[in-house]
Specification:
The structure is a homodimer of 408-residue chains. Chain A is of the alpha/beta class and 408 residues long. Chain A has 12 helices and 18 strands. In chain A, strand 11 and strand 12 form a beta hairpin. In chain A, helix 5 runs parallel beside helix 7. About 2% of the residues of chain A have low confidence. Chains A and B meet through helix 2 and helix 3 of A and helix 2 and helix 3 of B.
Chain lengths: 408, 408
């Protein structure tokens, strides 16, 4: 059997019409000779009665601090309801279909409720059902411990389920269906000319995801990457081929060497950041001690820092907007004076192709200053250049960088 | 540990206020020194998003003939959602509470989806949680096969769960909480003077349930009866003691011998019946052959008959209204001529105390004819007398019999 794992997100199964469309994608894969194994997320978004957020809110109305174990049991129902309804649609279309919970599908996790990690997959039940000619539908986002406790995998968990199944079944493809055309060169809501990339590497998609592109969960990419299972990001709403995610060797060996002259893969953005500039005043040993104390006090509070630049007498970093007041309080309690710039956004140009290419940062600065965008901070790694700008400049900056690198 | 099993039906947990009230009943049992094990049904009735009927309708909109296995998976979510929310309410009140699915609670069933039978209970997990001082909440109405397939127990299944747990834990009581005061002498919506019975026997409650009194599922009674676990039917909405259901020995040994002079335990009714009178024309061997053919053809179609009277040249019986046209068609195809009386109702006087008491049937006929109620058919067994009347006379007949036997 040549397996194909097809994962459909919550918006893809939100209405009867969409579920018909999803069934069409599944049946098409079957008719192409694949044995489809389908992973579904809970139906819709907050507001739909069976969406994950709706279930969470329902329990929180009873008790804000419901135990994580019970919350996972509750959330697991979202994918059960969604998967059973997809089985119904396929059965109605005349295709034998069976639905398996995460536990029944052999998704074994550790016991970290709300953000469990898949330890292994026991695919025997899936294989048995598939051998009987059934389309197997598996609940995404959930698993079970060896002790029989139901767990959920955290946000993006259905992608992780699909990836783990792809590896366990040695699938020809793991197809992640979503509401966009594939991995885009930029957010199409910001950039009119944003396009789906034909191919990207595992590394590039991980970078894009970490930098705010809402595509595939990085953990899912890490899983398929280990066994070199090709992953495709495709649209439920069209028949375009989507983006193939594969190892860099595959991409470079492709008939069209798209990455050779592709410096930048995509432009991403993360809004709602607050920049801190903390004077550590002293330099030398005394300054280092103060800096160590600064990082330690913030780390103990669980606040994660980003965009960190360390100078002899100053530390600059950003935090997410929802924790900035907590961070400011901690710094004050620890005796630090901080300059705070609210309403910032991070814009990133991501691309493995920029490694060793001179002048990328220069081109970025050039493109932004031409548009009178103030650069608050800039960092680079060998695959990414980040620029911190004011929130009000974010869209303009994304468009400027897209024009500079993607539309030439 | 002295366990008490407390079962709360869907209407008892339908709103936040009711769930607070239910929590109060549970905490009260704990404070009386019991170890409560709570069984919950799905929240509310059709219309509530997480009610069993709502979930069924949701799947049926996709496919009317969804497979029974998948329907059970879907329905199992109703009790999971309900049970998690009850755990939330108890946790908020400061009581450690844990929720277990049927599978986690060790409710092992056969594989008859939609109407599975409990084969055994493995109470280890419940015992472990209870020993840790936790209030254990168990999903009613569901179980798991030895192969890990999720099953449901059919309507009334939460009562069965509670009864099976009561036996497995050797509980002091199995308390079935509902929206009435206990086992009533008649339906209080029909008879103003209907009252809760203080004590009834297992036999009496089974008879009442079979004759249409919506109280406790007979299967649940059969289970507790085998191990002589006392069962109480109580109201979620009041603090009255409810009805104690126990073996006849217990009732007769009671300080007040309530059953000695209680000929009739209660009056029940079942509406929506259709009466058939089928002439088998021939008598003797030929007639018997035709009668056998009549019963066989109806039995093969899965239609259940009630109120059967067999005469040498005629067979009289009733069927439920929703299958009467199917029954008529089958009889016609088999060459029988049937007289059909639509819109009938069965009224029953139930009571183990009528055994050996002369004149009960005479008193019933007297009470009904005094009210000009036409008796279409009447049968009796040693604990029950049934009368078939026109649907329009049903309420009047119930009131007449209640006055005759229960208000004297």
């Amino acid at each position: 059997m040549r397996f194909i794992v097809q994962k459909f997100g919550g918006t893809s199964v939100a209405t009867p019409e969409l579920r018909e469309r999803v069934a069409g994608k599944i049946i098409a894969a079957k008719e192409e000779g694949y044995t489809p194994v389908v992973v579904v997320s809970a139906i819709g978004r907050a507001g739909d009665p069976y969406a994950t957020d709706t279930l969470i809110n329902f329990a929180r109305q009873a008790h804000r601090d419901l135990s994580a174990r019970e919350m996972d049991l509750l959330m697991s129902c979202g994918e059960i309801i969604s998967g059973v309804v997809m089985a119904a649609v396929l059965q109605k279309a005349g295709h034998p279909a069976v639905f398996l919970t995460g536990a029944q599908a052999g998704i074994i996790t550790d016991g970290s409720y709300n953000e469990a990690r898949i330890l292994k997959v026991k695919p025997e039940n899936i294989l048995k059902q598939a051998k009987e000619g059934k389309i197997v539908i598996v609940a995404g986002f959930q698993g079970v411990t060896e002790d029989g406790e139901i767990t959920t995998l955290g946000r993006g968990g259905s992608d992780t389920t699909a990836a783990a199944l792809g590896v366990a079944l040695n699938a020809a493809y793991v197809d992640i269906y979503t509401d966009v055309e594939g991995i885009m060169t930029a957010d199409p809501r910001i950039v009119d000319g944003a396009q789906a990339l034909e191919k990207v590497t595992y590394d590039e998609i991980c970078q894009l995801a970490h930098e705010g592109a809402k595509v595939v969960h990085p953990r899912a990419v890490e899983i398929v990457m280990q066994r070199n299972i090709p992953l495709r990001v495709r649209s439920t709403f069209s028949d375009t081929p989507g983006t193939l995610v594969t190892s860099s060797g595959e991409v470079y060996r492709g008939t069209i060497d798209i990455t050779r002259d592709r410096t930048i893969t995509g432009i991403t953005q993360i809004p709602n950041l607050v920049q801190f500039k903390v004077a550590t005043e002293e330099t030398g040993t005394e300054g280092l001690t103060r800096q160590r104390r600064l990082f330690k006090s913030l780390a103990l509070s669980g606040i994660s820092l980003d965009f960190i630049n360390v100078y002899p007498d100053e530390v600059v970093f950003t935090v997410k907007e929802d924790v900035w007041q907590k961070a400011a309080q901690i710094l004050e309690n620890a005796g630090f004076k901080a300059g705070v710039t609210p309403d910032c956004a991070k814009v990133a140009a991501v691309g493995a192709g920029m490694t060793g290419v001179p002048g990328v940062m220069a081109a970025i600065v050039e493109a932004l200053t031409r548009e009178n965008i103030q650069i608050l901070q800039a960092n680079d790694s060998y695959t990414t250049i980040w620029v911190l700008v004011k929130r009000e400049d974010m869209e303009k900056a994304v468009r400027a960088l897209h024009r500079q690198f993607m539309e030439s």
